[in-house]
Amino acid sequence: MSHTSHHKSTLLARVRRLKGQMEAIERALETGAPCADILNLAASVRGATNGLVVELLEDHLHSHVVQAETDADRSAAALELVDVMRRHLK
Question: Which residue ranges form the domains of the chain, and what is each CATH number?
């Protein structure tokens, strides 16, 4: 079982907020809202996305690195984490 299933409701709530924020950007674009308002909405989406990623990274770190059963599992999970972080920080 994935560690994300333990925090499923929290993660889904974050995703639903993101979805709502993206829909707000869509509405703002459709109605011709001022660009500063749209930029602020986009910044909110970026912040919410980063918050989701941090929560997932933290869960991964605790579940697969800190609590790994073997050094091999710990090493593999750490490498996976580094790979994900590199993609996220591009």
Answer: 3-89 (1.20.58.1000)
Rounded CA separation 41/35 (Å) = 10
pLDDT (tens digit per residue) in 37-89: 999 999 999 999 999 999 998 888 988 889 888 999 999 999 999 998 899 88
Global pTM reads 0.79
Distance CA 9, CA 18 (A): 14
User: Is 3's pLDDT higher than 70?
Assistant: no
With a CB cutoff of 8 Å and minimum separation 6, the contacts of 22 are 45
Tokens of 62: 């605790």
CA atoms within 13 A on the CB side of 14: 16
Query: Three-state DSSP class for 32?
Result: coil
| CA atoms of 79 and 68, how far apart (whole Å) | 13
